[in-house]
Amino acid sequence: MSGIHLTREVSDLDRRIVVALQQDGRASWTSIAEFAGAPVSTVTRRGQQLLAEGLVRVGIVPTLGSEGHVETFFVRINCTPGSQLGVAQALIGSPYVRFVTLVTGKFDVFAEVVIPGDSATYAHVLTDLQAIPGVERWRSDLVVHTYKVSFDWGRQLYDAHAEATTDPQSYMPAPNTCDPTHFDDADRAIVEELRHNGRASFQSIGDTLDMNESSVRRRYERMRNAGCLTTVTMVPASALGMSAETLLILRVEPSRIAAVAQTLAHHVSVRFLAAALEENSLYCEIILPSTETLHDFLTGTIAHLKGVRGWNAAMELVFMKRGFIETPWWRAQVASAGGVESVS
Fold first, then answer.
1. Number of domains the chain contains
2. Which end of the chain is more exposed for a tag (fewer CB within 10 A), N or C?
């Protein structure tokens, strides 16, 4: 989307609309206006503009495991000099890759790979991805438990919401909790439409798929109530004035992993939290307003958690895919940083 302007001024009303969409990507403009404290007509116009510009994207995807059992691997990649963008683009194109970001630190690219089937399939998929031109070193770590995946981190911008703990009801459903029998071909077609436009009306989906509106609505509500759908609202953190997107790998005493995870999961700034197989690790993604607030969180919160032995950290430079959905602004973001020649 060449029309995306990441440097344009985003008003406080725009931010409030985005935060409301993070909490419920399919919320009515009336309920969003109530949260934002502005007239419905104004909120509708501004919200539709944000979506049309691609500054915000709402998509709906199936819960992990909805088509059968899956396992997740967190991957850290070193690239040959100058090949980072090419490697990341190849990962974006893989249907197995849920998350991709360029990072600072010891590695160049972090990715999350979700693989169905058994160990033979894992080996096949990971080996193929490791063969991407430009990959110099590849480390895969099995995710053994996911404690939190949420999209409401923008709440911390507003005093009335900043100190409230994240509601577990807003978390992405845990992997492998949705019975695959909940989906048939019509359900899959509905979800595919919602993947591209999570705010599409049931009537428009019905018109596209030659189904009646009530049938689309009924099927959607059944899948959602069964925990088989996840609403993903994506926005560049910088658009909300947040400049510290950080991935942490915490080293934790084995007996304290669950306790540390439960404490961290309550913080609205923690977007992702999972236990990994290697070295008693917790992978933690946090989004904060500034380097100063990041320092305060590390030294004032994490450093005082009983059982935490230390951590490695990497700043996210640009995330390119999340929830299996490519972010619509990453090319503009890279181009504005001088990497336009490498982006196609």
1. 2
2. C
